[in-house]
Amino acid sequence: MDFLKFEDLSFSSAFSEPQEDIHLEYKTATWKLPKNFWETVSSFANTDGGLIVLGVKEDKDNHKYEITGVDDPIVVRQEIFNGNSNSECLSSPVIHDSDVKLVDCFDRTIIEVLVHPEQYNKRPLEAHGIAYVRTDDGDRKATEEQLKYFLVEHQQEIDTRLLRNFDLEDINSLDLDEYGTVLRKNTNTRYKDLESLAFDLGVFRRDRTSNGKDRLLTEGGLLFFGKYNSITDRFPHFQLDYRKYDRDGDTDWSDRVSSGDMNFPELNVFSFYNLVLPKLSVGISDKYSQDDSLTRGSYYSDLKLALKEALVNSLMHAYYDGDRSVVIIDKPSYLEFTNPGIMRVSKDSFLRGQESIIRNTQISTLFRKIGISEKAASGGPRILKAARRNRLLPPEIVIDHQSNTTSIRIWKVDAVTMLTRDLEDDIEIFIVNYVNHHNQFKFSDLYRSTNGKYGSESRIRNRLRKLIKDNVIVSYGNGKSRVYGIKKTEEQKQVERIMAIKKLEDTIIK
Question: Which of 6, 117, 379, 447 could make an SS bond with 49 (beta carbons 3.0 to 4.6 A apart)?
C-alpha cells in the first residue's frame, strides 16, 4: 500500500473510487483524531498493513465519499505521534515520520497515514489493551484462536518443543524404517536400530531442563513420523488432505488422500508426502513446448519440481496447532496448496528467494537430510522459474489473515489456454493468441497480421470490441495511440514484475 494521489483520482471533492477495503480506511477528523483511529492502526498492523485517510466522510447508503478535510492538520498530526509513543494508547510505536503525509486537495487538507504490517514475532499490536485484525468489512477484535496464533508465532522454532509422556511407541516404525532406507541409500548412513536412528535424527532429544538424561520426542518428530492417534493427542485438529478433480468446475473429487480415513489410518507428514507427490506428477500432461531450436521443452520437469517444492513448503510451514487443515486441490488447470499459518516473509521475498524463515525447523531438517528440501529459500524461485520458462499464468499467493492461512496456486496452463478454452469463434481465438505473443498491440498491426483470412477490418474490430466487453482484452490510450493487451489483475501484474526482476537477477548472476 502507498499514499493515494487524490488530485489524480478525482475531479471534485466527491468520489466513489477507491472504496474502503481490507487495505484502505477513510475517517472524518475535524480538530482531533477520531476515537477509533487506533483500532484501525492495530488491525492494519496485525494484518497486511494499510492506509488511513483522515478528512473523508463516507455516504454509506450510496457508497460514495466526500473530502471534508481536517480543520487543524498540524494539531491532529501531533496527536498521532503523541498517541504512537504512548504505551497506554498503542502497545508499541509503529508510525514513523515518513508514514504521515499532509495533502492539500480541493481547498482542504487531508492526512494520509501509512501503517505497515508488524513482523510475525511482534504481533499482536494492541490499541488500548485490545488486539484488532482487519477484515473486508472493517476492524474486528482478535478471536481467542487468533491471539493463540500470535503468541505461538513469537517463537522462532515451533516444532522443536519437547513432549512429555510420549515415546518410541508413538512413532510409526514402518515410516521411520522407510526413511532410514532412503537415508542409507543417499548418504551411506549406518545405524544400529530404529531407536538409535530416531535419536540421531533429532526426533528425540535430551531434556536439558532436567538433571536426568531423559530423551523426549519433539513435536516435529511426532508430526513427521507419528501414529495418527498419537499426533491427534497433541494436535487435535491435525488434518492433511489431498483432493483431485477431473474438471475445473467439479465439486466432487475423483481421488483423495486424507488423514484419519479408513484407507489411510496412520497418515503423518512423511507418509502423506510419499503418497501425494506421485499423484501430483501424474496430473502433469507431458506436452511438448518447443523452443527456437525445436527441441523438447522443460514443461514436465519444471512443473514437477515446482509442485514438489510447493508440497514441501506447505508441510514444513504449516501451523499445526490451529484448527485449519493442510489442503491440496488438484485440478486440470492448476494446483492449490493451502496451509494454516501466514507466510513469514513477503510474497516478493518468497518468490525471489531472498529470505526463508521456517516455521517448523525439525520437519524441514528431516526433509533436507534425505534430499527432499535441498536449499533454504529455493521453493519460490523454482515455482517462479517454471511459470516463466513455460509461459504459464503467474503463480498466485493469497494470505487470509482472518483464517490465518496461506494459499499458493500454481497454474498448469498459459493465459491463452485459459482465455480461449471457452471461445468458439476463430477470430477471437486468433486475437487472444496474437496479444499473448505481442503483449501489447495496435489494431492496425493486428489486422495486417490476419492477411485477410478472417474478413474485413470492421469484422475484426467488432470481435475485438466483444473481447473488451467480456473483460478479456483491455485498451489503453485514445485515437491512433490506442493499444490493446490482455486484462490482468493487480496480483498478476505484481508477480509479473517480480518475474522480470528475478530474470534480470539470474542474468546478472550468470
Answer: 117
pTM comes to 0.81
Q: Is residue 214 within a helix (H) or strand (E), and if so which, with residue range? A: none
Q: Would you say 66 and 56 are in contact if contact means Cβ atoms under 8 Å apart?
A: yes
Q: At what angle do helices 457-469 and 426-438 cross, to 10 degrees?
A: 80
Q: How many CB atoms lie within 10 A of CB 381?
A: 21
Q: Which helix or strand (DSSP H or E) is residue 290 part of?
A: none
Based on the number of CB atoms within 10 Å of its own CB, is 406 exposed (0-12), middle (13-18) or buried (19 or more)? buried
In terms of Cβ atoms closer than 10 Å to its own Cβ (0-12, 13-18, 19+), residue 363 is buried
Dist CA 109 CA 314 (whole Å)? 47
Q: Nearest 5°: phi and psi at 500? A: -65, -40
* Cα–Cα separations (whole angstroms), residue 58 to 18, 21, 358: 12, 13, 42
Cell numbers that stand for 2 in this block: 502507498
d(CA 83, CA 37): 10
CB atoms < 10 A from the CB of 272, how many? 22
Query: Is residue 198 a contact partner of residue 171, using CB atoms and an 8 Å limit?
Result: yes
- Taking a C-beta distance cutoff of 8 angstroms, is the pair 495, 395 a contact? yes
Separation between Cα atoms, residue 470 and residue 29, nearest integer Å: 41
Cell numbers 493465459 correspond to: 415
Phi-psi region of 168 (alpha: psi -120 to 50; beta: other; left: phi over 0): alpha
446 membership: H or E segment, kind and range: helix 443-450
C-alpha cell at 331: 485440478
- 509 Cβ contact list (under 8 Å, min separation 6): none
* Gap between the Cα atoms of 212 and 74, Å rounded: 64
Q: Is residue 238 within 8 Å of 232, Cβ to Cβ? A: yes
